[in-house]
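Running low. Got one?
___
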Amino acid sequence: MRLLYQLTSPMERTLGDGEMARRRAVMQRYAASGTEVEIRSIPRGPGSIESAYDAALVVPEILASLAEADRAGIDAAIIGCFSDPGIEAVREVTQMPVVGPGASALHLAAQLGNRFAIISPGEVGGRVAGRMRALGLSDKFASVRGIAMPVLELAKDRNTALERVAEVGRIAVKNDGADILVLGCMSMAFLEITEDLQARIGVPVVNPVVAAVKTAEMVAAMGLSHSKAAYPAPPLKEIYA
């Protein structure tokens, strides 16, 4: 099985080729025997996604890359951002299964406890409640709490990120009634702090990297993909440049 992890930034120009290789290796360790993980960046876009504006900028690049991957015979793809940018549009133009790590992690968390909290890198925006409604998870959602670290900074500082996530995670459990935590950022998830957090906080912590890899493998292995009744191909029309 060939699995593509589609980055949502030109990472070789921000964190470097070495970080891209490290992230591919992390996913390969979690993948099943016989799964080959590939990773691909986009040629242009912001260095990280921390707003709806950032997400909108990268969607055309993601669309082009994943449409090409579909034609090349990739078995399944993951959009490499917790907010799953452009996933509905991508599903309209692809046949291969395309999964979002955010949705994969949140639906998994909903199966493991009564209420989950999301740990986010920066300031907490007002879009989370709407996303929970769209995913049908409002009744399971306890809170979202930020650790006040920009995405590119936390990607370079595992120890500080671990301490801050542990601190706000304890607050989410004690004050918000969460019994499951979800890491709400891929750079945070690639720090491989999940086991340390579970030991410190005492509740399960869902890593969206692992959730997305296993979801993509499962869907592809079952011969499933997204419903074309839900995501029909867009009508052909001239695109004016």
Observations:
- The chain is about 45% helix and 15% strand.
- The longest strand covers residues 2-7.
